[in-house]
Amino acid sequence: MAEQPDQNSPSHPTTKPYLIRAIYEWCTDNGYTPYVAVVVDANTRVPMEFVKDGQIVLNVSFEATSGLKMGNDFIEFAARFGGQAREIMVPIARVAAVYARENGHGMGFEVTEPVSTHQPDAKVDNPTTATAPERPAPGGKPKLTVVK
Amino acid sequence: MAEQPDQNSPSHPTTKPYLIRAIYEWCTDNGYTPYVAVVVDANTRVPMEFVKDGQIVLNVSFEATSGLKMGNDFIEFAARFGGQAREIMVPIARVAAVYARENGHGMGFEVTEPVSTHQPDAKVDNPTTATAPERPAPGGKPKLTVVK
Prior knowledge:
CATH class of the domain at 33-108 in chain A: Mainly Beta
Strand content of chain A: 25-35%
Oligomer: homodimer
Order of helices and strands of chain A: HEEEEEEE
Structural class of chain A: mainly beta
Number of strands of chain A: 7
Helix content of chain A: under 10%
């Protein structure tokens, strides 16, 4: 069988979008709030005013999003930030983690491409009088665990 | 939020069935043959004559199965072994790996409960003149890789 290119391995297509959707569904089925941590680059369309240290954490729950599409190449949706609807587009390659807000359980991924935030051609939305974005639950970083 | 019991952790329900389905879908979408490695116990209904060292590898592809159900507690399907239809039931807890036959890529899991094969009350189907079950591709063990 012909092998397909993969951003992570030359030997097979990536499983990453499938695993992201799996954790998303696990969150939704169990009443948890799915969060996606993103390492922002020029191909990532997010509200840049909420990017901190090159990263942003997005609430991708059904309630927080509109028109959510979790494809094999991109996560796309609209969400309100500070009362204003914003179009979000995140390449799957830029997803560093997907986890439940309530307990931090989920899955982390290496984001291997060079981080290039604040590039001139980055799709920076206009700043708004936005409130703070969603953040992980109190207690610090998500507790990503090894699959057992 | 009330936390639910989990076979792997007391703090959250298991993600395991979601991840198994994710790898299954990844295999199917990419034309790979999904294999499931099972650590057999008394609650596992498989053709015992194909169990080796307490384990069996099952081809769970659409083509090889009938009525496949990949639930949160069990994988269930019918399949032909040596020309005879057999009913298969595998508790999710007994799944040690799911991977693509063609390249060995997939995901492994710890199976922590004590292995208790060949128990008197195991649901052992009658032996048949079956041919050999599906095996991993030449080259040995599946090459389960860390998610990156």
